């Protein structure tokens, strides 16, 4: 791919100072065969295809991909084909794709070449990342092989220049890297640049717990002196801050918790440097498979038949008319049984769900405990009960007893990450980070 200012192929139109239009997405997670279902693999591909076709239809000047195009660092041929087919479509329409690596698709530690690098090498995208020398960030222009920024000249205003910087996923070092990047930005010449974008695979630390590569808002704020639009990825919950930090969220549902954020999708951003505000981002929800979750407290039920009736009633309230096509349905049972509960008939629960919808999958999650397992307060939540169970286990081992509560929190987090399909490397990094932050250790005996 060429060096220097890249012209974007959208129809020219005269106008004020500088105008352009771009699309911002992240956390696509191609290749995720969620629940080991081929149809879920296809769902992630369909979400990406829809967004790419929107980019073509809207005649955007360029596309920003803020990390995690892929779900895994090692991908199979069908996953690569999904990516290449859609990126080739953008290439045929001369729409540049600017990308950064996320934690899911970066190269293995022993490798220096990732699948994002492969796509850059074949001309499907421009992979941006700073280099670091002697504790400083170096922001070099993209030279066709590597670089931290690229200058684009949108056809909507051929005299204008948009500069896009990119910083890849830096894990626990993010808090140190961002000030380095800010210092490097201060040394850059932006006199001939009309609009500046920075891509980061990171986020503020007050959006969701348990994420690595998150930092206080105060760490991000100094970038605003040099950046008009901070294009974020990594956190799957969409958010916006002060009309300059934007995170679209995950296009498809990577874990059932994400169904609480239906507004996830992508941004279409219109830029006009003569207007106030300078840009108008529109977050658009893309089509995706429906997820339904039924949560039931078993405490009021006196027998299993009442439970099965409650499942049917709760699901009916959620499905709507007509029900969504082939949703993923999760039935979560929580609380303390008031009787000697026999084993929950999972197949009967699935049959009850099947009478109301035609599900792709029914998952039954049993988080209940038998009465008398331990003393529980009447107001104890499920999370409190789980914490007490784990903490009790750690307290039984003298090596962990001094920090049993902290170890219990970590164990609960690890369980959640495994259920959400987090990569082994991200789990290892999270454990290391938590052990360092809370000074967790094993007592000598």
- Remind me, CATH topology of the largest domain? Purple Acid Phosphatase, chain A, domain 2
Task: Please state the structural category.
Answer: alpha/beta
Q: For the CA atoms, what is the radius of gyration?
A: 24 Å
Strand content bin:
15-25%
* Average of per-residue pLDDT values: 86
Count of structural domains: 3
CATH architectural designation of the largest domain: 4-Layer Sandwich
CATH level-four homologous superfamily name of the largest domain:
Metallo-dependent phosphatases
Number of strands: 19
The total of helices stands at: 10
Return residue spans where pLDDT drops below 50 for at least 5 consecutive residues.
Answer: 9-16
The end-to-end distance, rounded to whole angstroms, is 61 Å
Into which percent range does the helicity of residues fall?
25-40%
Largest sheet: 8 strands, mixed
Which CATH class of the largest domain applies here? Alpha Beta
